[in-house]
Amino acid sequence: MDSWGTLPYQFNIYNSLILGGIVQGLIFGLIVAFSKKYRDTSTLLLALMIVVFSVHNFQYYLTATRLVKNRYMYGYFWTPGQLVMAPLMFFYGVKLLYPERPIANKTIAWMLTPFAIGVLAISYLKINYRYLGNQHRYLILEAVIEFAGILLTISILSWLLRETRKVERASQGLEVAKMLPKLKWFRNILATFFMLCLVWFCVTLYMVLYDPPQDIWYIMWVSLSVMIYWLGHVGIYKYGVNEERKKIRNHALNRSSIIVVDKSKNDYVSAFEDLLVNKKYFLNPDLTLDKVAEELNLSKSHLSRIINKEMGTTFPEYMNELRVKEAKFYLRHPDFGNYTLVAIGLEAGFASKTSFNNTFKKVTGMTPSEYKNSEMENESSAQSLA
Asked: Which of 22, 331, 350, 369 is most exposed, with minimal Cβ within 10 Å?
């Protein structure tokens, strides 16, 4: 009998991986939904996307393992989750890139229109199924919806990639008062997902035209699932880091300067220190000697000579000194004792966790975690003696 009727159960390693992802995705959604720490529009949209994807996968899991006959799944339960996944990805991306920008109701309506049309078409066939039992119509509709979902996803991923680059370019200025999140991780995931969707389109077309081994479909299914779940976990982690960074940034901007500028120094040196210290330009990880020279209306070579001659150091060494001192302050501060080293390093002006660790150890002889533990031990010893 064909797959529309009765077939023996079919379990394999792919199904097991998918089931593990489904369970993980549902638990992930519940944790985010009921956690005050992650209560934000962007994280809730991300959690909803993961839950919808998990439920959608569960539909295919039930039919792929023959736990539910295809005629029952398609005749009563099937919902085109692939047509709502792309809009949820869009909504999440917009809130991540432009957290202060509301999503217009008109935009929401347009994005959900394909899903609404898909539900209406499926509902029509479900109603008529009781009288006709026509498998062929369901298979055609499923293929149409699958291709529509892929094309919609590709279009949205293209738009998000373009907007991500635009936001990244806008964050290259010297201003540090407004913290913009690091978006390289999001851009990389979008690019990888975009390539997978192109392959997904080709595989789907190949499966419609021919009858290839099921392993091809399973591999794509698992690959796409890994990307979606990876986006969920990384997105939540980055949200937590960004929230910590906001609190650190507010504290940094409201705190007095690390160095009091000596007005008796060379005017250019005073202006240089005022720019980096009092205006806290050193917190910008993209700050370069060229940008500072342009701000001071000097040539790069002239400014470099001034720093070397008048201050007895180099631009990179001076920047590292300021950033390490800034990091030390937060590593010692009890209010930030539970904050991640990533958030502290980024808000001290380092471009990455690796850069933070390497530079901090080069300057102090200890890694940030070793320094933090040492300070905690010293504080504990002092309290014991007291």
From this structure: 369
Check residue 264 and give its pLDDT: 55
How far is 347 from 285, CA to CA, in rounded Å? 9
What predicted TM-score, i.e. pTM, was given to this entire model?
0.82
Contacting residues for 29 by C-beta, under 8 A, at least 6 apart: 47, 48, 50, 51, 54
Place of tokens 């539909």: 59
Q: Alpha carbon of 374 to those of 57, 367, 368, 377, 384: distances in Å?
A: 48, 10, 10, 5, 15
Residue 340 in contact with residue 330, Cβ under 8 Å?
no
Give pLDDT tens digits for 116-161. Answer: 999 998 888 777 755 445 566 677 788 888 899 999 999 999 999 9
SS in 3 state form for 164-229? HHHHHHHCCCCCCCCCCCCCHHHHHHHHHHHHHHHHHHHHHHHHHHCCCCHHHHHHHHHHHHHHHH
Burial class (CB in 10 A: 0-12, 13-18, 19+), 352: middle
Distance separating alpha carbons of residues 384 and 14, to the nearest angstrom: 57
Does residue 90 contact residue 98 with C-beta atoms inside 8 Å? no
Whether residue 269 is predicted with pLDDT greater than 90 in this model: the reply is: no
Cα–Cα nearest to 57, from 29, 17, 93, 87: 17
User: What separation in angstroms does the CA of 15 have from each of 9, 10, 25, 233, 357?
Assistant: 11, 9, 15, 21, 41
For residues 276 and 292, the answer to whether their CB atoms sit within 8 Å is yes
Nearest to 56 by CA among 115, 3, 5, 137: 115
How far apart are the C-alpha atoms of 172 and 157, rounded to whole Å? 23
Task: At 91, list the tokens.
Answer: 């909504």
Residue 6: per-residue pLDDT: 45
Alpha-helical runs (H) found in the chain: 13-33, 41-64, 70-72, 82-97, 105-132, 135-170, 184-209, 214-254, 267-273, 289-295, 300-311, 315-332, 341-347, 353-364, 368-385
The answer to whether 296 and 272 have CB atoms below 8 angstroms apart is: yes
pLDDT at residue 1 above 50? no
Going by C-beta distance under 8 Å and a sequence separation of 6 or more, which residues neighbour residue 148?
Answer: 83, 114, 118
Averaged pLDDT for residues 46-50: 94
Determine the Cα–Cα distance for residues 273 and 279; give it in Å rounded to an integer.
Answer: 9
